[in-house]
Design goal:
The protein has about 240 residues and is α/β, with parallel strands linked by helices. It has helices at about 35-45, 60-65, 90-100, 120-130, 195-200, 220-235, and strands at about 5-10, 30, 35, 50-55, 75-80, 105-110, 115, 135-140, 145-150, 155-160, 160-175, 205, 210-215. It has a single domain, classed as Spore Coat Polysaccharide Biosynthesis Protein SpsA, Chain A (Alpha-Beta Complex). Strand 2 and strand 3 (about 35) form a beta hairpin. The relative contact order is 0.17.
Length: about 240
């Protein structure tokens, strides 16, 4: 069963986009003429989410004006505010302090990534793991070639840059139990809250092998546009 509420941290400026984000917050940067955040919300609505809470900071009024109350997007949208200079944990902490979330469990995510992750399967993994937080993982990606050697230093395999299939990384999509509030103090969520939850043996993971596109700079944006253009072109002709 898909959870009804999702929270999105969308306060980033996206400094690596340089002049492009001087007048536009990063979540509103378009991928093929559609803002990143709009693509995320469309995916949530299509999956069955009914309520979205967006944590805003940099140029927050532009985001609020674009999405308004969410009626045009088929979902209820409300907003919170946080300090742009804070870390991910600060942003989630501020959102949960300002928003009235009574749900036992809810989705949480960054506002600069596109995926086709199954929210239904994600929620099931979270419940089965009896977790305070469940992290979606993807195969580790690297911009460097990977060298595998034996115990004597002889190279036995060389892989060009790309995915490392035996290593996993945080995809920036989560399911949180309401108890997450007790672990949020500020800073970076991976370094603080998640480490504490690991100590409680209550941090679970769910691996995703499908689409996962990050948009952190112009190169990644161009890659995302190419991938989605191919996928949406295929979908439109199917």
């Amino acid at each position: 069963m898909v959870l009804k509420t999702a929270i999105i941290i969308a306060g980033g400026r996206g400094k690596r986009f340089e002049e492009r984000t001087e007048d536009l917050p990063k979540p509103l940067i378009p991928i093929n003429d559609k803002p990143i955040l709009e693509r995320i919300i469309e995916w949530l609505v299509k999956s069955g989410v009914k309520r979205v809470i967006i944590g805003t900071a940099y140029k927050k009024e532009m985001i609020k004006n674009y999405f308004s109350d969410g009626e045009d997007f088929g979902v209820e949208i409300t907003y919170t505010e946080h300090d742009e200079a804070g870390g991910t944990e600060d942003a989630f902490k501020a959102l949960l302090e300002q928003a009235n979330i009574e749900d036992e469990n809810f989705y949480a995510m960054n506002g600069d990534q596109v995926t086709d992750l199954s929210l239904d399967d994600f929620e099931k993994a979270h419940i089965a793991g009896n977790a305070i937080a469940t992290i979606a993982t993807v195969n580790l990606r690297t911009n460097f070639g990977i060298v595998h050697t034996d115990d004597f230093g002889k190279v036995v395999e060389f892989k060009e840059k790309g995915e490392v299939h035996d290593k996993r990384m945080n995809a920036g999509f989560y399911v949180f139990n309401k108890k997450i509030k007790d672990f949020l103090v500020g800073g970076n969520i991976e370094e603080n809250a998640f480490r504490k939850i690991i100590g409680e043996k209550m941090l679970h993971s769910f691996h995703h092998d499908g689409i996962w596109l990050t948009v952190n700079d112009k190169k990644e944006l161009n890659h995302a546009e190419d991938i989605l253009k191919k996928l949406e072109g295929f979908s439109n002709t199917a």
